[in-house]
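Lab notebook, bench 4. Still working through the backlog of constructs that have no structural model yet. Next entry is a single chain of 389 residues. Request: give me the structure tokens for it.
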Amino acid sequence: MARHIAANFVNLMIVLLVAAGGLFYWAKGEFNNSGPLKSALFVEVPRGGSMSRLAAELEEQGAVSHAMIMRVAANYNGQAEKLKFGNYEIPAGASMAEILNIVTKSTRSVFQYRLTYTIGIKSANLRLEKREGEKFERVAAFASGEELPQEYVALVDAKTPINYRITAAEGATSWQIVEMLNQTDFLGGKVESIPPEGMLAPNTYEVRRGTLVSEVLDQMFSAQKRILAEEWEKRAPNLPFDTPEAALALASIIEKETSVAEERPEVAAVFVNRLNKGMKLQMDSTVEYGLTNGQGFLNRGLRRSELSKKTPYNTYIIDGLPPGPIGNPRRDAIRATLNPNISNNVFFVADGTGGHAFAETLVEHNANVAKWRKIEAEKRRQQQQNSSD
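Model written out:
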């Protein structure tokens, strides 16, 4: 009997060693083989940046297949502590080994200037900066559609290397992102078709002058597809929806309703509780999307008639979730949707601090609403007093 147990133990150890060996050689191949990046990518390593964060960003932008392999290899090779501050160009198809050499052995990039194009909910703004030592100082700031400042025009005419960055704000609709990308002077090939709502990951993307708008959109789409798949795999049990697409729709509402990271799981809990109880979501943000179809914004409060207007997105009228997202949510909003807090709250209202007050009962909620109305009234009084002074 003892001999039989010993034989089984030896066999198990052999299987485990073979499996470990196979895993090692697979990871080694992933580390040394050509990477998935289709076109060159510019990345910025901030001062004090970590290898862990860089690996995660490179995975999100499609430059490496597995951030964990890059991170473990960097620690094993002693390269994690050798990460250098600067801007770097990652060539198409670069392996993880090559990328680590670039960001740990290369001299700092030659970029003295960078242009950040920020796509917001209502407009897009540009900021031209020049490197001064280890910091960037502003040279010019202007809005999309305005005349290009002479400082920027002179740099372009002189073919001065510029690090171009595109930042897509969380909550912006796919139409807004395409519209703003089409207006840039440094991207090529305008796009007419709009990618699926919710499937463009809000983030900062490094590009080269002449990059096609379609390439930027493909990068955003691939990043969001990967994020959604990763977060869906880690979802909590017993959620009141059973598809990633439904989760994305709810995440886009959460993105619109709060900008406070810490309370997103609680906002998610409110919506999950409402869905479980058969309550309507009743969110103004969905009503506005139904009126604009994500093309522009109202720039005013909703009218009573609009709250009762029937559209597929009016959650004061429809049951459950709208038919799709109402904007592009960030990873944190998706994660909160799929891992909400456990609570009994079904109401929330602004509390005057930028966050929200939550409640389980209508009585509690009405009291919170009354407090908020007093805060609003005091703000209006202060504004009137200041304008009359």
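Notes after review: The chain has 13 helices and nine strands. The chain has a mean pLDDT of 86. Flag for follow-up if needed.
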